[in-house]
Structure prediction request, 316 residues.
Amino acid sequence: MALLGDILQELKVLLIEGPFVLIQLFGLILQSVYNFLVPVGFRAKEVHGETVLITGAGSGLGRLTAIKLSRRGCCLVIWDVNKTGNDETARLIREEGGLVHAYQVNLCDRSAIYACAEKVKTEVGDVDILINNAGIVSGKRFLDTPDELIERTMNVNINAHFWTVKSFLPSMVKNNHGHVVTIASTAGLIGVSGLVDYHASKFAAVGFDESLRDELAYMGASGVNTTCVCPLFINTGMFEGVKSKLPLSLPILDQDYVTNKIIEAILTNQQMVVLPKITYFLMSLKWCLPTRGITLLQQFTGCSSSMDSFTGRKSE
Prediction:
């Protein structure tokens, strides 16, 4: 009888609920076609007056994203462990007439994150857009990476996401308004040699975003969006020295281009951004080819050896 009950339940789901799901899927496909054909300017949401918190805003991608969002009329809250760099970002924003609040935060310290989050809520108010941008890379092969560097990579690149989102998501859910942006990496989609700890942290970041998005949908928080950004190497200095055998197919991305894509994704509630677009093709190969075939392609393209000439930022 129990088996018969399970069969009837499954038939009910497939025959009654299934058609409605197919209709919704078709509608989502049409929405994707619309998004592809219609320019961003005609479907972008308004972010003027929104409060945006960006981690790792003291340099590179974080700084440029903060400046560009300030130009759109956002109030910036910028976090970085590097006080000098963070203060410089704040100065650049204020020079253009922007509103910014700078805080020095060690993202390896959960207590420090929670304490600073409470300070932000008191001094600034609710955060509307949270961009977890901060990231570090050791750039060493796994057996050459000290334990403390592995822990630091995981703390900054993924663990901090839990604590920042836990701090600011409740008000977003309460107001049914907000956006959580995860700056991950193509390293969260395909693993290569020389970046084992980094890849592990970025795979976790991609999974964090995907699961959080599903959980928000299940909760009915339709006004809270998430975006996961997965770029290849960017010319911020973080991956200084990396090389590819195919520099045109697998280029070092310009940070100005990447920040524009991040902001575009926020304005249009795009859920996933993968750069460059050839990575979508590589991802399809990952699931179609034998595992050893992927290893062969990585060696052919030079991905496996790309970190051999890595130098990175001197400060790291």
User: Anything to note?
Assistant: Residues 126 and 171 are 7 Å apart (CA to CA). The first strand starts at residue 51 and ends at 55. The beta strands are 51-55, 75-80, 99-104, 129-132, 178-183, 224-231, 272-275. The chain has one domain: 46-309.
